[in-house]
Design goal:
alpha/beta; Udp-n-acetylmuramoylalanyl-d-glutamate--2,6- Diaminopimelate Ligase, Chain: A, domain 1; UDP-N-acetylmuramoyl-L-alanine:D-glutamate ligase; Protein-Tyrosine Phosphatase, Chain A; 3 domains; 9-stranded mixed β-sheet; 6-stranded mixed β-sheet; 21 strands
Length: 476
């Protein structure tokens, strides 16, 4: 992971040490000016500071010599002996390299005048981040964190990339346990905080949806006094959240009393249209160029953020129209004479159900069969089997024509589909889907002209490899 520092002169090793509260020793010459930071020694080179992180499987300290051999002349690390030190290298020693990134990001935040929008939630974080950025970009100079740089490592590095002349920065915050969002929020000091929803992702680590909710609400730790918390009014666990130092506002698809209420939602083949009702009136005919009712939540958060930061309805409308979804997230496209719904970046029960809804809608538009290729949803803990079965039940409820269930999780999805009334002849279980080439050829033989085929599973399943194999097999 690498972050470019948006400053022509870069940052001196001495400044960097002060910002991360580390001890500088070794070379302090102008040659040690830092223009970027990285956590991968393969990306370390002249002008790039290498941050040596200790991971569960790999210790970055073991790769300091590799970074230096690649031209790196500044290293942030927890230890280095004088015997091992290179005279031409500036070393910044800290107690904890990972924590030092947050300290560094907090120091960077103090130099910025940009309004910061922080986005977290179980599902839809990246979509919401991108929608908010698209809206704000219609009028303002905007920085948005790249891809899913939303961890205690990625988000602080993203903050180092925010240009000083930026008007707004939109940052994504994910987590795998308690305390992580708190650390990121304190570093980012957001003016606006968004919690998209409370789902079941990371149930294994957090125990329950209430535990997940508590972890997401850590975003309040850094919310600035007078800031705004935007919440999903359709999530019971988020109702009634409030405090004296900030205001709470709600978006909703079902509650007319919400601050930002979507009505008249229409899902078309290549777009979704809706109106937004606020206390000020109705903004009609907003359009996002993606399909699915669930995407309206992201658009509502973007609309709300735009209004809070002074945009007019026409500016927001333009921004929403230019919104595009991130790579491997719900992309619908034609391949030869079939339609592929690629949504394989990650998966939770909530996003699975939403993708199945889009599959059913798209298949109806294209007048072909609906085919769902579904695999494991990871990190669901003791509730995993039941949650996989619930996805199968939803599949049956939506009348999907064919289920191709992959792996152990797929077996449970198939069980739920049967229990929901899906006919056995419409279910194909591939318990061992490790040989993706063989599976791809099988799928290519199943699909007919006009069909719409959904691919979805957790990122660890690497379903994008199967998609590529299927497209090649079907093409030939």
């Amino acid at each position: 992971m690498k972050a470019e520092i948006q400053n022509k002169e870069g940052i001196s090793a001495r400044q960097l040490a002060q910002m991360c509260k580390g001890r500088l020793w070794g070379n302090e010459s102008p040659d040690t000016a830092v223009h970027a930071l990285c956590t991968d020694s393969r990306e370390a080179e002249a002008g790039v500071a290498f941050v040596a992180l200790r991971g569960s499987r790999v210790d970055g300290h073991d790769y300091i010599e590799t970074a230096i051999a690649n031209g790196c002349r500044c290293v942030i690390c927890e230890k280095v002996t004088e015997a091992d030190a290179h005279t031409e290298v500036a070393y910044i020693t800290v107690a904890d390299s990972e924590a030092a990134l947050s300290t560094l990001a907090a120091a960077r935040r103090e130099t910025l005048n940009a309004a910061v929008v922080a986005v977290t939630g179980s599902v839809g974080k990246t979509t919401t981040k991108d929608a908010v950025a698209a809206v704000l970009a219609s009028k303002k100079r905007v920085y948005a964190s790249k891809g899913n740089h939303n961890s205690v490592i990625g988000m602080p590095l993203s903050m180092m990339e925010i240009p000083k002349e930026c008007d707004c920065a939109v940052l994504e915050m994910g987590m795998s346990g308690f305390g992580e969002i708190e650390r990121m929020s304190l570093a980012a000091a957001p003016n606006i905080a968004i919690i998209t929803n409370i789902g079941t992702s990371h149930m294994e680590a957090l125990g329950s949806r209430k535990g997940i909710c508590r972890a997401k609400l850590e975003i309040l730790c850094g919310l600035q006094t007078g800031g705004t918390l935007l919440l999903n009014g359709d999530e019971p666990l988020l109702r009634g959240v409030g405090g004296k130092s900030y205001r709470t506002m709600y978006v909703s698809l079902t509650c007319e009393k919400a601050d930002f209420y979507a009505q008249n939602i229409r899902i078309l083949e290549d777009r979704t249209c809706f109106d937004v009702v606020t206390k000020e009136g109705v903004c009609r005919e907003l359009v996002i160029p993606v399909c699915g009712r669930h995407n309206v939540y992201a658009a509502l958060y973007a609309y709300a953020t735009g209004k809070l930061l002074g945009l007019y309805d026409d500016e927001i409308r333009e921004g929403l129209w230019h919104f595009t979804s991130a790579e491997m997230r719900q992309s619908v496209y034609a391949h030869k004479d079939v339609y592929v719904l690629e949504d394989c970046y990650n998966a939770s029960p909530e996003s699975m159900r939403a993708a199945i809804d889009v599959l059913a809608e798209q298949a109806a538009f294209h007048s072909g069969r609906s085919i769902a290729v579904l695999g494991d949803m990871l990190e669901l803990g003791k509730t995993s089997d039941a949650l996989h079965r619930s996805v199968g039940a939803h599949l049956a409820e939506r009348g999907i024509d064919l289920l191709v269930a992959l792996g152990a999780g797929g077996e449970k999805i198939a069980e739920g589909a049967r229990e929901g009334g899906m006919e056995e002849k419409k279910i194909l279980v591939l318990s061992d889907a490790t040989h993706k080439d063989a599976v791809a050829r099988l799928l290519a033989g199943l699909v007919r002209k006009g069909d719409t085929i959904l691919f979805k599973a957790s990122r660890g399943v690497r379903l994008e490899q199967l998609i590529q194999g299927f497209k090649e097999a079907y093409q030939s």
